[in-house]
Write a structure and sequence with these properties.
about 150 residues, alpha+beta, 12-stranded mixed β-sheet, 2 helices, about 50% strand
Length: about 150
Amino acid sequence: MKIVAMVIALVLLTGSIAALAGEQDMFIGRVKNVSGHAVIERNGERIKVIPGIRMMAEDVIETGEDSSLGIIFKDNALLSMGENSRLSMTQFEFDPAMGHLSFVADIFKGTMTYLTGIIGKVNPEVVKFRTPTATIGIRGTHLAIKVEE
């Protein structure tokens, strides 16, 4: 009976470690600050944004009226969003040792500023912001974008 219990405990522990590792792989950054009302859409849920909340790959971030927020990504890039903005973190990979680098965001509306991190400095061609009418590639270090509805 003790062996069965130990096997079950080991299986549960292994599953928990795998789940944490999977979540860590999806972790792309943290919200540094937020003013007003902002939400993250993740897996069909709407989560209120608070300072320190972890950003995950494929999150959609939305700010309300008179709201703003700032995000620090794993590669030390900085993204600030103004009021009534909506952005999807479509793709983010930061594994310099393996050469896996990418940053792709879809901007649906609003205003944003972006300050390049390690990804943009090492391989600027893989940093892209897509809007309904254009794709913006990063060739410098700082960018401001406004997308109207």
